[in-house]
């Protein structure tokens, strides 16, 4: 049987891939949001694609300690799909940046609520 620490490190690549894809989706939605809201900033929202590694690093630096704490005191995801969605969920910490007019969404859509929803599905599948 693997230890929790081994499972933590072996799940990090999936979390990073999930965060990468989640961030790409957020950047795409941010560009579309600026078009839809008819915002005309000095620098276009598309410039964020050039600085893609910096927000990704920010997300990973948040995800690693939060994931370690959540795994210690909460449930440990059991499938690769759930680990991937948790990784994508960490990209939601940039909601305040991607959609500045709707910054309050971070209280509804954040990694902890996504973990809680996935936890409910895990509990319901065990019963």
Give a brief rundown of this model.
The protein has 127 residues and is mainly α. Helix content is 67%, strand content 0%. Helix 1 (4-36) crosses helix 2, helix 1 (4-36) packs across helix 3 and helix 3 packs antiparallel against helix 5 (111-126).
Shape, please? elongated
| Domain module count | 1
Structural class: mainly alpha
State mean pLDDT (0 to 100 scale).
Answer: 79
Return residue spans where pLDDT drops below 50 for at least 5 consecutive residues: none
Overview of the structural elements:
The chain is mostly helical. The protein has one domain. It has 5 helices and no strands. The longest helix is centred in the first third of the chain and has 33 residues, at 4-36. The model has no long low-confidence stretch (mean pLDDT 79).
Secondary structure layout plus pairing:
Elements (H helix, E strand, L loop, with lengths): L3 H33 L16 H21 L6 H11 L4 H4 L12 H16 L1
List keywords for this structure.
single chain; elongated; mainly alpha; 127 residues; 5 helices
